[in-house]
Amino acid sequence: MRIVVIGAGIGGLTTAALLVKAGYSVTVLEAQTYPGGCAGTFFHKGYRFDAGATLAGGFQPGGPHARLAQLLGLSYPTHPISDAGWVVHLPNRRIYQWTDPEQWQEEVQRHFPFSRAFWKLQRFLANQVWDLSSRNAPLPPQSFHEFISLLKALRPGTITTLPFLFSRVKDFFPSKWTPEFKAFVDAQLLISAQTTSEDASLLYGSAAMDLPRRGIHTVKGGMGTLSEVLVDWIRRNGSEVLFRQEAVRVETNKREVHRVITRKGDVFTCDALVANVTPWGWAKLLGDALPVSIKKDLLKTGRMWGAFVLHLGVEADRVNTPITHHQIIGTLDRPLGETNSVFLSLSPLDDPTRAPSGMRAVTISTHTEPLGWFSLSEEDYQKRKEQYTEQCLSLVEREFPGFRSAVRLCLAGSPRTYAYYTHRPWGMVGGFPQSSILQARGPQSGFHNAWLVGDSVFPGQSTAGVTLGATRVANLILQSL
């Protein structure tokens, strides 16, 4: 069997590794010179900057990364975060996302004493959803076999969540909720479910809000190390990962894909194909061969977010906090994103591989609507980048006085940047807003021997979510073969 994987992101590499583990030979094609995609790490002037994802969760016993490592017999160079996964900075308070459940309950009750029932329900639903995910339950099921697998994964506790299947997070807000409470919940949901409490699925949102208690780790060398470990494992077990091989066209024969053409003109014939791309990227690869079912699917599919990102080199002694992740909210009277909320990640103080001596690698990101960046003239584009840079730095300066003067290197990126380096149409990243588990997008490609993986395939958000989706796709392929 000739199996080809397009894209050496977490989704593509995880699927490839599981197929190699099952005894198949796999060829992975990657356009860039390094793996990881939107969870990769790039090198610049002595710094290792995370290209997109900066938060590594799912390493708890039974978590997606832990299960994959056990199955493949590999280890990641990670270290568990034992204090706060991150800090949420509201305009008038700081709330610590403690990894210890009891410490976390005390923290949230201290800030929002009226919310006890809300967090009790959230913890219960989160436990059920994470428990279901530990059994690789396929959601939403796309075949009779997957439907049977889902039924086998259910437990009595799972059944008790059914009344909440169509609920939104805000449906269960405390009756006396405050703007601070809503901003706090919305901030968490935006980074982990790509939407806020009005639209976020209660089941998915409950699990997403529990991420800090689910094995948050630091990764030596940056997030891209996770992909580098998988590349090494795949190669050591007899399969290929080829860099500078950008797939530009997928050729089909009736209901099957059968060849991948790269920009270099190389041809890779395949019996099965895995594409670590968004649905729009898949449409671009197929061109006129795109099935009608996928065309219709794209017409009704909502867009994903884009990101505006700053990669900074900062003097370490000016920002010496040991907590590596911070979410900062601007004002409570404006929507989140578009520089009114940023997620700041600092390289760990004990990881000298990330920055030159005396410096820290810092990433600041904010959600942004992607399409508007592509309609700007070059002059207006540069002005908008400067404006967003200034607003992001000002927000961080509010919480870390002196931060701005400690910056020695500043690289700004927009959805245009992501489109250029990741080849994602419109630079969309992070996955679809999770408003309903029943409407979640599966790995369907329109062809019976091809599957999509990555952040656009449920559950999608984070490297943990992408690993879950890739495990599901690997199982589907093994069943079909």
UniProtKB/TrEMBL annotation:
Pfam families given in the database record: Amino_oxidase
InterPro entries (alphabetical): Amino_oxidase, CrtISO-like, FAD/NAD-bd_sf
Domain of life: Bacteria
GO BP annotation list: carotenoid metabolic process
Gene Ontology molecular function terms on file: oxidoreductase activity
Domain Amine oxidase: 10-401
PANTHER family reported for this sequence: PROLYCOPENE ISOMERASE, CHLOROPLASTIC, PTHR46313
Name listed for the protein in its UniProt record: Oxidoreductase
Source organism: Anaerolinea thermophila (strain DSM 14523 / JCM 11388 / NBRC 100420 / UNI-1)
